[in-house]
Design brief:
The structure is a single chain. With 176 residues, this protein is an all-alpha fold. It has a domain of 50 residues. It has 6 helices and no strands. α3 crosses α4. The radius of gyration is 47 Å and the shape is rod-shaped.
Length: 176
């Protein structure tokens, strides 16, 4: 079992005690010549007004610094977003390659116009697709009818009393 600090003091030799006392007096003399102002020094006595980097910053200053860094990142992200948007817009693409800078309002206005154009173009393409589908259905019906006519003509002629011309007109009227 180890002795406590006060018990170790009693055990030490008188010569060691004297050396410790002298060292403490020297330390006291060197620190007493310096004036330590708690408002301008940190816990180690280092001057806080120095331009040196501080290990311990004021919490409010740390908060400000963190906020400034976050705000700068946000502004950079917005700037990059506008630059990317400018390169995506066909009306601004050529001018951005030439190094021409447009205001954010112009970039947003052109983006809205381009989105409206794309929306209208998509609507027209859907209408055209619907029209093509209707045409395909009509052509499939015509194909089916022509196949029926071809089967009738390939079969031996029966005396039905209807001429080929009349049959064709009947098919044509059914499609028209």
């Amino acid at each position: 079992m180890h002795a406590c600090w006060y018990q170790q003091d009693l055990i030490r030799s008188p010569r060691l005690k004297q050396e410790e006392i002298e060292m403490n007096q020297q330390d006291d003399a060197s620190t007493s010549s310096q004036i330590v102002d708690p408002y301008f020094t940190d816990q180690h006595g280092d001057d806080l007004n120095d331009d040196d980097e501080q290990d311990v910053q004021d919490p409010l200053e740390r908060k400000r610094t963190a906020h400034s860094i976050a705000e700068q990142k946000r502004r950079d992200a917005i700037k990059k977003g506008f630059e990317d948007l400018q390169t995506l817009l066909p009306t601004l693409r050529n001018s951005s390659n030439a190094g021409q800078k447009h205001s954010k309002a112009i970039i947003l206005q052109r983006a809205v116009e381009y989105l409206q154009y794309l929306t209208e173009d998509r609507r027209k393409l859907h209408e055209q697709l619907d029209q093509f589908r209707k045409e395909v259905m009509a052509l499939e019906i015509m194909k089916t009818n022509y196949e029926q006519i071809a089967r009738v003509h390939n079969q031996p002629q029966q005396e039905s009393g209807i001429t080929d011309e009349e049959q064709f007109d009947a098919v044509k009227l059914g499609l028209g």
